[in-house]
Amino acid sequence: MLEAYSQTLTHWLLVGAAVILLMLITYALLQALKARRATAVGYALVLPWVLGFVIWQVYPVLYSLYLAFTSYDVLTPPKWVGLANFKTMFLDDPRFWPSVRLTLLYSFLSVPLGMIGALGTATLLAQDVKAVGFWRTLYYVPSILPAAATALLWRFMFAGSGLLNSILSPFLKLFNIAPPSWFADEKLVLPSFLIMSFWGVFGSNTIILLASLKNVPKELSEAAQVDGASPWTRFIRITVPMISPSLFYVMIMGIISAMQNFTAPLFITTPGGAGTFLNVYIYQQGFTQFKMGYGAALGWFLMVLILLLTAVVWKFSAAYVYYEGEVRKEG
Amino acid sequence: MSTQLPRIAKTFVVYALLIFGASVVLVPLVWMLSTSLKGRQDLFTYPPQWIPRPMVFRNYIDAWKALPFGHFFLNTLFITVLAMLAELFTTSIVAYGFARFDFRGRNGLFTILLATMMLPAVVTLIPTFLIWRNLNLIDTFDPLTIGAWFAWGPAYIFMMRQFFLTIPRSMEEAALIDGANVFQIYWHIMLPMLRPALLTIAVLSFQGNWNNFQAPLLYLNSMEKFPVVLGLKFFEQSLSKEAPMWNYMMAMSVVMAAPILGLFFAAQRYFIEGLNVGATKG
Asked: I need a surface site. Which of A276, A281, A314, B44 has the fewest CB within 10 A?
């Protein structure tokens, strides 16, 4: 065991030293080429990221595009199969579309729900509340907990005779409804995941939106109040547009992470794979069935899906997001 | 009087909602702690038992011993600390470069960096795995720690850069005139002022590496190398497959969450300010 530690530690130190050495070489080279000081130092300093970008992002993205057109089981070399993976994916794989559907529905519902929750909480905290720091910290706690621990906790609370059903039981008895089985009921898998996600979203989103709310100039709202605008009108017409850049940021990041939901569904067993999110399915195909070519094709599909969604939100945002100091073209 | 009453009513509603929200946050956590101290027979009692009778502190010892959790803990700490140190070092240096040096192509590179925030990790998963496999380093800690030297986390770089932009240039310029080199300026002048930013990134990075599940799941096979999260998964899959031992699993979840919670509370004053500078200016 010590061997494993010392091996990694050695490699870690060597790679660290190599990165620093490469930075110095870049600097010396640019100096020798008579570059300006700012250029030489600048390139040397950002070198680690440039290297990382090429090694861990550009190359893998391109290589996985190639793999997407192959059949590859890790043991024998990849075999070119053309569009076969995509044909399987779209036409023949009975598990593909349900998992796309679950992933999309989850993102479409959990992101707006979470944003409304976070915006509501932030608005409350912006009302000159005493001990804001205390509340802010408290609301942040769910989002720093390990997703694995949270998933297990919710699975336990959602058990047939778990905490949630115990709390609900007076109401259930009143209306004569059988206690729901949540994650164990195919139809309730999605709602259960949504409820669970709602608990975890307050954290950083609330903090970002709260900071943004605090930056809205009070004069705007006061002027509108003098003109007789109701609190609701002021909120919708002044506050929301003023914080729209933050809302936009929270939304994009929320979509990207919701589309890649992974840890929670792997800790929660659902009947008949009803809780197989796309990212989980990619893992199953690529790493438990060793269909790396098919896995890469699925990965590319998910990436394109995420980029499309982001682009759509972006397009819409051009009309709604307000940036101070920006000159807008009329019409 | 007519404006007094609505104000009191409003204050009341605000606090009532805040307390309601807080209880939604806290109830599951209290339940986790309470379950971790229950005997098996008390797991599903009705009405729910909030304070276990008797309190079974032995759960923590028994669960800890059911699998080599001591080992798992050490592994997690090892991975987390190495990755965090390398991330802190490289992301702050790269951010310094982007914030302070006007080199050709800087804005283009920075735009690319921001765009990579939107690149889903899932698409690089398989090729990255194959790189480590070709290096013969599967089932070692290398894939979980060494990538950090390449400035993991565009979001961290972005946050750091925002911090650098808030620091006035005059001190650096003075030091430059006194003949200090870039490294000296970075180390003696920038780093001390960056403390809140570094602390924020440290907490985020510690949390990210400590909680990370996907990477260890892909790269580690032998149990002696598992981090806590894989131990938890293994426990859930094998030892408590038939009848889930929720009390043990909750006990180990508490143990896994405790260090992050501790760190968060210790650093929270800086941390939340840090998040704000990173998120609102941009």
From this structure: A314
Q: Domains of chain B by range and CATH?
A: 4-58 (no CATH), 59-280 (1.10.3720.10)
Q: For residue range A68-126, list pLDDT tens digits in order.
A: 999 999 889 999 999 999 999 999 999 999 999 999 999 999 999 999 999 999 999 88
Interface residue A282 vs chain B (CB under 8 A): yes
Q: How many CA atoms lie within 13 A of B252 on its CB side?
A: 27
Can you give the residue ranges of every domain in chain A?
A: 2-67, 88-320
Is some CB atom of chain A closer than 8 A to the CB atom of B108? no
- Domain A88-320 sits in CATH 3.30.70.2210: no
The shortest C-alpha distance from A92 to chain B (Å) reads 22
Give Cα B87 distance to the centre of its chain. Answer: 12
Buried b (16+ CB within 10 A) or exposed e, B117-127: ebbbbbbbbbb
Give CA–CA dist A310/A326, Å, rounded.
Answer: 22
| CA of B151 vs chain A CAs: smallest distance (Å) | 5
- Reported as a single tens digit per residue, the pLDDT across B58-87 is 999 999 998 999 999 999 999 999 999 999
Comparing CB atoms, the residue among B94, B126, B276 nearest residue A64 is B126
- Check residue B120 and give its pLDDT: 86
Closest of A279, A273, A284 to residue A299, by C-alpha: A279
> What's the whole-model pTM score?
0.90
Inform me whether the C-beta atom of residue A272 falls under 8 Å from chain B C-beta atoms: no
B189 inside 8 A of chain A by CB: no
Coil/strand/helix, residue B104:
coil
How close A238 gets to chain B, by Cα (Å)? Answer: 18
A140-143 CB contacts, 8 Å cutoff, 24+ apart: A140/A202, A140/A203, A140/A204, A140/A206, A140/A207, A140/B264, A140/B268, A140/B272, A141/A203, A141/B25, A141/B29, A141/B261, A141/B264, A142/A199, A142/A200, A142/A202, A142/A203, A142/B25, A142/B28, A143/A200, A143/A201, A143/A202, A143/A203, A143/A204
Cβ count near A274 (within 10 Å): 17
Q: Rounded to whole angstroms, how far apart are CA atoms B279 and B261?
A: 22
Shortest CA gap B22–chain A (Å): 7
**Which residues from A are below 8 Å from B32, CB to CB?**
149, 153
Whether B97 sits inside 8 A of A11 (CB atoms) is: no
B88 touching A, CB under 8 A?
no
Predicted complex: ipTM over 0.95: no
- pLDDT tens, residue by residue, B18-62: 999 899 899 999 999 999 999 888 888 888 888 888 888 999 999
Contact B126 A45 (CB under 8 A): no
Query: Does B243 reach chain A within 8 Å, measured CB to CB?
Result: no
